[in-house]
Amino acid sequence: MKILILNGPNLNLLGKRETSIYGNQDFNSYFVELKSKFPTLQLEYFQSNIEGEIISKLQEVGFSYDGIVLNAGAYTHTSIGIGDCIKAIETPVIEVHISNTFSRETFRHQSFISPNAKGVIIGFGLKSYDLALEYFN
């Protein structure tokens, strides 16, 4: 199975950014661990701070991959375009968040992705990605 892990804005700063919320590990080293944990999955990783690049990547793989694990970061709460794109593609999307967005600021309680996602995993740290990949495994 071919799976894309797609991270949005500021997730390139994992391990440096607000470590009390997001932890001390950078995503690139975690991705190596994921590939080792899920050897039967063909995993790819893409990160962008730019909304249009995220939409373009979703469109690029959204009719040919078996799954997408998406952490759209702050775009989760603001991007109707990403939500619409997920509705338009065929590949199932699992929305993930490292932190429990419902225990944070009120604006983080809204997701434009959730209504169109296959499922949502929130608040288990980086383990949220493992749980999403279990669905596809």
Automatic annotation (TrEMBL):
SUPFAM superfamilies: Type II 3-dehydroquinate dehydratase. Keywords: Amino-acid biosynthesis, Aromatic amino acid biosynthesis, Lyase. PROSITE patterns: DEHYDROQUINASE_II (PS01029). It catalyses: 3-dehydroquinate = 3-dehydroshikimate + H2O. It is an enzyme of class 4 (lyase). GO terms for biological process: amino acid biosynthetic process; aromatic amino acid family biosynthetic process; chorismate biosynthetic process; quinate catabolic process. CDD domains: DHQase_II. Its EC number is 4.2.1.10. One of its GO terms (molecular function) is 3-dehydroquinate dehydratase activity. The record marks 17 as: Transition state stabilizer. Substrate binds at residues 71, 77, 84, 98-99, 108. Coiled coil: none annotated. Pathway: Metabolic intermediate biosynthesis; chorismate biosynthesis; chorismate from D-erythrose 4-phosphate and phosphoenolpyruvate: step 3/7. The active site is at 22 (proton acceptor), 97 (proton donor). Catalyzes a trans-dehydration via an enolate intermediate. Homododecamer. PANTHER family: CATABOLIC 3-DEHYDROQUINASE (PTHR21272). Belongs to the type-II 3-dehydroquinase family. This is 3-dehydroquinate dehydratase. It comes from Flavobacterium urocaniciphilum.
